[in-house]
Amino acid sequence: MVRAIFFDIDGTLVSGKSKTYTESTKLALEKLRKKGIHLFVATGRHVLEIEEERLIDGLYFDGYITLNGQYCFNEKEIIYHNEINKEDIKNIIKQIDSHPYPCMFLEKDRMYINMINQEVIEAQKAIHSSLPPVMDIHRALENPVYQIVPYVDSVKAKTFPLSVLKYSKATRWNALAIDIIPESGSKKEGIKSILEYYQIPLESTMAFGDGENDIEMLEFVALGVAMGNAGEKVKKAADYITDDVDNDGIIRALEHFHLI
Predict the structure, then answer these.
(1) Which CATH number does the domain 4-81+185-256 belong to among 3.40.50.1000, 1.10.510.10, 3.90.79.10, 3.30.360.10?
(2) What is the reported pTM?
(3) Which of 3, 52, 202, 254 lies at a C-alpha separation of 20 to 30 Å from 96?
(4) pLDDT tens, 2-19?
């Protein structure tokens, strides 16, 4: 019996075309809640982006896994947080100081970047997100940072910043940008903390996703569902492939498994 379902946002709950969720998705989630199933967001996004873009306004969730699992909370409290190792941050900033490239740093309550170029503009536009404020990134040396976003292509990334990371890992979400999180971090780890908090067994879980940062999550839960618009790697990691986000993929999968 499914007791908890985790949803990615971009390309899963929210369409990249319409920038919002479908009425069928809202209806499906309302039906799940009436059945007593716990609903959670599991996204690489920062809560500030979610609120600013009003991505899921009108939908209710029991908790939120943000920043690819590094910062998890509900309306009452912080459930789990996992910050990036300071040595890695120091090495990245040192690298940027000598060979500048755009890089965004995400703390629990703010996002900031050292510079903005065309790569940043294009990557942020792709997810309908506003440009982060330009600030002194050296503040990251003194404050907890949960995710770092270098705006580099796959060739540059091998040197900037992947060559200096010791305790962190990277996942690409755009041809021009990657997410850096702790080596021990992932949406999977965020889910573990949520399940422990709500005392829900792993065998009662389900998740929906479409991106490479969803692969561990889909493999970890009892039933992983890939959206039709997901990449091939993601689909291979899933137990079931539904329709795409613009063709009622969520409600179709829930109906397929007789959950609504």
Answers:
(1) 3.40.50.1000
(2) 0.92
(3) 52
(4) 999 999 999 999 998 888
In the beta sheet, which residues pair with residue 172?
Answer: 178
- Tokens linked to 176: 């021009």
